[in-house]
Specification:
There is one protein chain. Helix 8 crosses helix 9 and helix 14 runs antiparallel to helix 16. By secondary structure, the chain is α/β, with parallel strands linked by helices.
Length: 431
């Protein structure tokens, strides 16, 4: 009886081992069901810096849940998605991707543009009160030009340069664009005489006011390309339009100056100690787009943002022979030079573009403008309504699409980044 019990006990042990071995073999050959996601399991108790121990989680296969002390890491990660852009109709007349018109086609298009201006002048709000602030006259070309800054103005200067300066000078935009003896902007020879020559033909270059305003911000404010001239304006803008919630007793002007000076030092490649981290004007250390728009709406009339229709008076006594657009600038100026016998100026291909910021695309356009309030968008429409009307730019569509962008991306937040080449500093994202 004793030996029988012993055999029975050993038999149960052997049977258990056989069943256990079979179960392990079965689990080892089991495959993941079709359509399932391969799962890599990483132990949570791994030492920092040690490579993760990858095992197959059979617990998860059987019970459709994570086994204890394990966490699942999916092999396929969802790509980071950008903001959803509103659907827009193609605006071929406002892009630079359309083929160049030939001389005959350009003459017809130019005539349509000029006739439209004369037709719509009675419907403008402010243009009839405008006065021409600046008119250049290039005697060797017999052309007069009212500059609209941030509307290809640097490249207009570049084309005329070779008529008056040597090649070396024409390759340095910083020399010619400064108000110094010998530069375009300080030579009386280039000021239009009163009365102007009878043979003079005038031209005007315009740009979509919404992209022009943003270009001015990115170049003059974000890039800080003319900090000395704008320091006081930047400080005043920060003090007036940046809300301060966590500090009640501090020197606003001193804090604003330190922030602007820090940003300027990075732009110029100078390492400078970062101001105190509780400086409320440090993030970002210059006015935001929203703050600048507040200042513009309140009456800031910098040459780079004032409406072109107010600056150059196309509805007043000034007659223009050619209306060029920055969006089709290369084609337009080529046609004008050929039609006026100035084809030699096309050989000057040196570009004086002063905006070294990353190229503006549709996502960036909506990103910046999404920071504005609905009232600000309406105020910009009111400010630039004459430009939009006379030069046929779809400003209302811009505002409608900006609002669509904000509704499609309710959690989207614009980030001000330290991305400009040549700038140093200890921050990347500064929003």
């Amino acid at each position: 009886m004793s030996s029988l019990n012993t055999c029975f006990r050993y038999g149960r042990t052997v049977l258990f081992l056989l069943l256990f071995g079979y179960s392990c073999f079965y689990l080892g050959t089991l495959s993941v069901p079709s359509g399932g996601t391969n799962v890599t399991i990483v132990r949570e108790d791994n030492e920092p810096g040690d490579p993760a121990k990858s095992v197959t989680d059979f617990w998860a296969k059987f019970f459709v849940s994570e086994s204890p002390k394990f966490k699942a890491v999916l092999e396929v990660k969802e790509p980071v998605k950008g903001p959803v852009l509103p659907e827009t109709e193609s605006e071929e007349s406002h892009t630079s991707n359309v083929p160049c018109l030939n001389n005959e086609e350009f003459v017809k298009e130019n005539e349509k543009r000029l006739n439209w201006i004369q037709q719509e002048c009675p419907n403008t709000v402010r243009t009839k009160l405008s006065e021409i602030k600046e008119m250049f006259y290039f005697p060797k070309s017999d052309l007069g030009w009212c500059p609209v800054y941030k509307a290809a103005s640097s490249n207009v200067f570049a084309h005329f340069c070779s008529d008056y300066f040597d090649e070396e000078t024409c390759q340095n935009k910083h020399i010619k664009m400064k108000d110094y003896e010998g530069g375009f902007r300080s030579l009386d020879d280039f000021r239009e005489k009163d009365p102007p020559p009878e043979s003079e033909q005038r031209f005007l270059v315009v740009r979509d006011p919404f992209t022009r305003l943003l270009s001015a911000y990115r170049n003059k404010v974000e890039l800080l390309s003319h900090t000395t001239a704008y320091t006081e304006f930047f400080m005043d803008t920060l003090m007036h339009y940046r809300p301060i919630r966590w500090i009640t007793n501090f020197d606003k002007r001193d804090s604003a100056f330190k922030a602007i000076n820090y940003a300027q030092s990075m732009t110029e490649g100078r390492n400078q100690r970062k101001p105190e981290p509780d400086n409320p004007y440090l993030y970002p250390p210059y006015p935001t787009f929203k703050e600048i728009v507040y200042a513009v709406i309140a009456g800031r009339r910098d040459n780079h943002v004032i409406p072109a229709s107010q600056r150059c008076g196309p509805c007043g006594s000034t007659h223009y022979d050619y209306l060029l657009k920055a969006e089709t600038f290369d084609c337009d100026i080529k046609n004008m030079f050929e039609l006026t016998g100035n084809s030699r100026l096309l050989t000057n291909t040196e570009r004086w573009a002063t905006n070294q910021t990353p190229v503006l695309n549709q996502t960036m356009f909506y990103s910046y403008y999404s920071t504005l309030t609905s009232d600000q968008l309406d105020d910009l429409l009111n400010l630039y309504q004459d430009d939009c009307l006379l030069f046929q730019y779809p400003c209302q569509k811009h505002v409608d699409n900006i609002r669509k962008f904000k509704s499609l991306n309710p959690d989207f937040k614009h980030e001000y980044r330290n991305t400009w080449s040549g700038r140093v500093g200890d921050w990347d994202t500064i929003s």
